[in-house]
Amino acid sequence: MKLYTRTGDAGKTSVVGGRVDKDDIRVEAYGTTDEVNAFVSEAISRMDPSKHADMIRDLTEIQHELFDAGGDLAQAGKKRDYQVTAEMVSRLEEWIDRYNGEAPEIKRFILPGGNALSSALHICRVLTRRAERRVVTLSRDQETNEEVRRYLNRLSDFFFAIARAVNAREGIKDVEYKRSGDVFR
């Protein structure tokens, strides 16, 4: 099988239901979700399996679910069976609570970082927020799986929680934003 088809040379790509411009909002939405997936692999590659086996397992599952989300977004406006479900969102909430429990209580905004792994997870967080924004834009014009938007919203919180858990496991303190008062109670 050849990896190139030459069918996209004119700036069009195939999606469920036909061909669209490569910068179509639908392509932007699932393409940005794919970017998140690639950065998740970057974070996993930085993990020590003896310290982060649970995180590797959860992040690998998230990679599969991000692929599912991309598939759901590729068929926006084409009512079909979707793969991203409310149960996935609920499970993310459980994982957020578990990882958040490993980190110290947060009172102020914190700066992204800590070590290379935590920084990679914060990059996943901000890319997920961008993907969510693209999905919001898409959903204004076309029917989408609402669970994808909810999933991405929760996923960015997950990345925040797991990045802080990484720092806690390594004994690295979060750097509080010094111009912030207490905003979390």
UniProtKB/TrEMBL annotation:
Entry's EC annotation: 2.5.1.17
GO molecular function: ATP binding; corrinoid adenosyltransferase activity
Pathway assignment: Cofactor biosynthesis; adenosylcobalamin biosynthesis; adenosylcobalamin from cob(II)yrinate a,c-diamide: step 2/7
Catalytic activity line of the entry: 2 cob(II)alamin + reduced [electron-transfer flavoprotein] + 2 ATP = 2 adenosylcob(III)alamin + 2 triphosphate + oxidized [electron-transfer flavoprotein] + 3 H(+); 2 cob(II)yrinate a,c diamide + reduced [electron-transfer flavoprotein] + 2 ATP = 2 adenosylcob(III)yrinate a,c-diamide + 2 triphosphate + oxidized [electron-transfer flavoprotein] + 3 H(+)
Name assigned to this protein: Corrinoid adenosyltransferase
Family, as annotated: Belongs to the Cob(I)alamin adenosyltransferase family.
Subunit architecture: Homotrimer.
Segments forming domain Cobalamin adenosyltransferase-like: 3-165
Lineage: Bacteria, Bacillati, Bacillota, Bacilli, Bacillales
GO BP annotations, alphabetical order: cobalamin biosynthetic process
InterPro entries linked: CblAdoTrfase-like, CblAdoTrfase-like_sf, PduO-typ
Keywords, sorted A to Z: ATP-binding, Cobalamin biosynthesis, Nucleotide-binding, Transferase
TM spans (from-to): none
